[in-house]
Amino acid sequence: MPPPHDSPIVIGAGHNGLTTAFYLARAGLKPLVLERRSVVGGAAVTEEIASGYRSPTLAHAIGPLRPSVARDMQLARRGVEFLHPDPRLIALSPDGRALEFASDMARTAEAIRAFSPKDAERYPEFCSTMARLGGFLSGILESTPPSLSAPGTGELWDLLKVGRRFRALGRKDGYRLLRWGPMAVADLVAEWFETDLLQAAIAARGIFGTAQGPWSAGTGALLLLNAAIDPAPGGSSVTVKGGPGALTSAMAQAAREAGAEIRTGAAVARVSVRDGRATGVVLEDGTEIEGSAVVSNADPRRTFLELVDPIELDPGFLAKIRHYRCPGTAAKMNLALTAFPVFQGVGNPGTLRGRLHIGPDIDYLERAFDASKYGEISLEPYLDIAIPTLQDPSLAPPGRHVMSVYVQYAPYKLAAGHDWTTERDVLASRVMRVLDRYAPGIEQLVEHREVITPIDLERKYGLTGGHIFHGEPSLDQLFTMRPILGWAQYRTPIAGLYLCGAGTHPGGGITAGSGQNAAREIVKQEIRR
Ligand SMILES: Cc1cc2nc3c(=O)[nH]c(=O)nc-3n(C[C@H](O)[C@H](O)[C@H](O)COP(=O)(O)OP(=O)(O)OC[C@H]3O[C@@H](n4cnc5c(N)ncnc54)[C@H](O)[C@@H]3O)c2cc1C
Fold it and tell me: How distant is the alpha carbon of residue 48 from its chain centre?
């Protein structure tokens, strides 16, 4: 049965699409969600990687998710158990030492003291500064970016409030905010700390998921934006029992209960447009479905360059979307292990419930990035690792483990003469070589390995260019410019067509920020109609 004509259609059941669908349903709009894969969740899924082993296939840590979304969706009642490992992060050094980032600031400062008493003294002030600046920015993440050409009264009022909050930050913090945003994160951390490992572990938050290195201008802004989501310098290691897939299954349940219908295995081929307004979609199997509006959780390039007939869009707009930068630099390796690996410098394996950082100094990270500029895979990649079975043994057979390894830099576009079919094994062997340096003998424990290249991210998971955040989070593609200047308010040049995914403000990460913000704007527009 086709849905009634007054139902909006949501293309994609990523966590943002599910969030938007939930809020649209709560507003009485009865959305229909169409997901091309057989499972909901997009990049937030838990899947079987080998018989008996289940792993977070892509993302292994949760944003964290906006508390208001968790509350509105009643995720706790639906059995979602958020896990907050402590320490959150352990940074490994090639000299066999390890640095623990605990949730408690004083404990982390004590751990830092073993590397540098001077850095230990500075750490608390760094944390509190990040918390203040992050606190200021978090309000901006929750708001819809203002229209720059014709701001309404409400937007001007909101801008005034932002201005007042900025003044309340005080001269010193205000100056820091303006100065640090455009800076290279390498310079920023070097102003605070002298320990290589500490600098690199913090700077990694400014480059995670980007096509930038720690010496790239503007990576300071990403560190600050991450601080707005979670100010702790080690970043978020929040996860969910059962992996991210357990979270998105519960989000789908919440959306259904609120009145949304969700169909999987329903790939949208085209958005139908009549007289400049989106009127529904056509599926790849030819089925036509009418809708009162269409909301795309797919990334901006996919939405406008693949799903919409170019005739419906102004050539100027199309040119800007073609210039929206979306080539990714990340890959993923999921390992099924027959036993727990021993990491050098980590006495108690129980402390590995959070994430592990491999990338011991700024130069290591920059060299890893350098290779990607020339279409090469890093000789020694930067790795962010989780071992989810430590928190949830049910993900593997008894005594066995899964290890989720995020790998950067693996450029989407490889240098001439290379492609991802042949380079897949090159990537895997480089990752294993680095891992073996920190966990000697790990290779013998690998029963199965799943290698997910940027091409797989595009083809299997629908991430254009393999970009994990639906587009580069660079200064020119953030806030009022996400995805492009003039179209940051979740609306598009086609009436009734909206965006709700990570390619919109505030961007990537499993926070549900884009989905919640988009729903607010869509409800305003569609209810007013
Ligand atoms: C390898 C990797 C590691 C990551 N690590 C982390 C991490 O540790 N922490 C963190 O917070 N974030 C992480 N992220 C980022 C985070 O997962 C994403 O930013 C976030 O999940 C994006 O959510 P979304 O709902 O906007 O889009 P997606 O999750 O990409 O969902 C979009 C959905 O739309 C569907 N779709 C696309 N086109 C169509 C179509 N034509 N028809 C129907 N359906 C369609 C897709 O199949 C997909 O399900 C990672 C991402 C990746 C890929």
Answer: 21
Least confident segment among 34-38, 106-110, 249-253, 343-347? 343-347
Q: Report the SS3 class of residue 47.
A: strand
- Cα–ligand 1 centroid distance for 14 (angstroms): 6
What is the spatial distance between Cα 21 and Cα 9, in angstroms, rounded to a whole number? 9
pLDDT band at 529 (very low <50, low <70, confident <90, very high): confident
**Stated pTM of the model:** 0.97
* Backbone dihedral angles phi then psi of residue 329, each to the nearest 5 degrees: -135, 15
CA separation (Å) from 65 to 146, 205, 327?
A: 24, 17, 25
Phi, psi of 62 (to 5 degrees): -100, 130
Angle at 334 between CA 331 and CA 339, to 5 degrees: 145
pLDDT, average across residues 406-427: 97
Instruction: Decide: 381 and 410 in contact? Cβ < 8 Å.
Output: yes
Q: Which of 19, 58, 450 has the most ligand 1 atoms within 8 A of CB, as the residue to mutate?
A: 58
Are 287 and 311 contacting, i.e. CB atoms less than 8 angstroms apart? no
Give the span between the Cα atoms of 166 and 177, in whole angstroms: 9
501 ligand 1 Cβ < 6 A:
yes
What backbone phi and psi angles, to 5 degrees, belong to 215?
Answer: -95, 5
Q: How far is the CA of 501 from the centre of ligand 1 (A)?
A: 8
pLDDT band at 461 (very low <50, low <70, confident <90, very high): very high
For the Cβ of 243 lying below 6 angstroms from any atom of ligand 1, the answer is no
Query: Model confidence over 265-287: pLDDT tens digits?
Result: 999 999 999 999 999 999 999 99
Would you say the CB of residue 60 lies under 6 angstroms from ligand 1?
A: yes
* Distance from Cα 473 to the centre of ligand 1, integer Å: 15
Q: How far apart are CA 294 and CA 21, in angstroms?
A: 11
pLDDT at residue 387, as a whole number: 98
Which tens digits make up the pLDDT trace of 87-97? 999 999 999 99
